[in-house]
Amino acid sequence: MTWVVAGWEVKVAKSSKRASKAAPQFLEDDPSTGYLPGRRWPIVRYGLISLAISAILVFAIELIVRGDVAGTVLFFLQPLKPGWTTIVVFALILIGLDAVLGRSHQSLMIVAPLTLALAFVGHQKSHYLGDPLYPTDFLYARQIFALLPLLVRDRPMTALAMVAGIIAGLSLLVYGWRLWRRKVPALSHKGRLARLTLAVPLLAFFVSIMDYATFSWTRDRLQIIPIMWDQKENYASNGFALAFALNVPMAHVSAPPGYTDKAIKAIDRPQTTASVPDEKPDIIIVMSESFWDPTRLPGVTITPDPIPTVRALRSGSMFSPEFGGMTANIEFEALTGFSNAFLPAGSIPYQQYVRTPTPSMATFLKSEGYSARAIHPGTNWFWNRGAVYADFGFNDFKSEETLPPMEKRGPLASDAAMTDEIIREADASNDPVFFFAVSLQNHGPYEPNRYYNPTHAVQAPISQWARDSLLSYAEGSADADRGLERLIEWAKKRERPTIVAFFGDHLPPLGPVYVETGFLKDNVAPRKEPTPQAALDHHETPLIIWSNRSGPVANLGTVSPAFLPYHILTAAGITHPYYTGFLGEMRERYRVVDRNLLLTPAGEATPDWSRQKEIDPAIRDFRLIQYDMMFGKRHAAPDFFPETVDKGVAHTS
């Protein structure tokens, strides 16, 4: 009885103690808000902890992307800069995800690994290609994985460390997730609803002001200024997360100012009509991967000359809109006669915009009885080429999947094997052929000792690694030059008229070689060059247009790839309302049309032209026609691309 009474007395005493320090009911229902007996303001404490976590995470993201502690600190020391807005947005995301997951601060286990991984990838892309990470890059993530074997071969220890780090990180994440679910109490329905009520409307409002194409008073007050014409500055000024978000709308291309049916009709129609010679010439275009003249590097001597054929036949230079990569964007211009200058910075038309039949040289030549064929020794899905070439009107695309086994030189299919295939198919065709071939052999990275039997020697005051890397590149360039020589010698013996065009798509991604030789300050060229001459130095690749009847076309100067259809078809004696008519008239006004630079035939430069209030009406018309044919209602088709109308090509935006 005594024990029972004592037990009762103890129980009553404990109950009295609880009653004296009773917590508010909503906190008892939701202990994971941070409530502890004797501690007040759990909601404020939870909010402050979320903000602190967000601040640390955003700082880490910026530090990884920038690779510079001082620059990262400076970004946050400016109180009116977007860094602080980013911290608040991340806190709202964490709070909202906590409500979804049902545990306080568990959202960090999702947001932190994801954003830090994105930051790392963004830093690597900027380091190797010079561009920040764009949302649209994930449309071609498969290409990145396809190149991993080359990257592993180039830096095996780094690759091994990355794999080990990924496995360890994932294991730790899984363990931490399970431990957190066991140790931290679940949120109540009331607590989850409160978090969602706070986070969702504010995040929705934030999303609504992020369309860079429209003015936002709030965004302006927050000092978030979309700098879409200079993406490096955009990411530096707004921070990685906000700049990444600002680039999401690039998937949609807005109509140029004044785009209407009447505006298209007001464009002067060229007097040129579509015509081909009675004896239709074969047209063979070879876009050689990363082909460039490595002897242009300061202080470098390569013996023997790696590109004697190109040097002897050179017609001019192609001004690449890219540096070290993004091959598909050069293809897009060279085949369509359209320009990347009129599309959002960082976009890849092959991935985002070519989703329906799109006029190209292949479309036109096929309508004139040509067999339009594309050849690339890589996979058909790379850069979405399989689907894009079909929309461009090619009859056939031979890729790794459908080509006969091709001899390799180094790790990739050789230029010699691709040349053999071009010659074999051309000789076997009764119809005139239009070939567009993209080589693969000299794709980067250029690991030392790529070829076991080098035929050249490199002399330069640079490190041994850089010298060996440059030798690997020079060997590949020499093979490309020999492939062109063989193609020319074959074409000289043909009775059928034959046009051969050859050019590099962009400068090679030589990275440290550029820095050690003094050619560049960084591994890649800046998007916005300080002078027009610097832009030419870093974007010119050799261009040859040659005929077996008249020899090489001479004195073309430097031209954008969008003008290649004009020069190639003109050399073949072929005319077309757009490719030789409209582009021919444009070529008289400009030889380079780039998003950062206009260059006239006389060499007069207009930098940052797209930011000016008044734009040359010729450039405006160029942009209007391109938008109309790619995204609009194709009002220009009957006059500029009659072959698409005759065949009833359907189009939907």
From TrEMBL:
UniProt keyword annotations, A-Z = Cell membrane, Membrane, Transmembrane, Transmembrane helix
UniProt key word Membrane = yes
Protein name (record) = LTA synthase family protein
| SUPFAM superfamilies, alphabetized | Alkaline phosphatase-like
Give the chief site where it resides. Answer: membrane
Q: Per the record, what is one GO cellular component?
A: plasma membrane
What subcellular locations does the record give?
Answer: Cell membrane
> What InterPro entries does the entry give?
Alkaline_phosphatase_core_sf, OpgB/LTA_synthase_biosynth, Sulfatase_N
Q: How does it sit in the membrane?
A: Multi-pass membrane protein
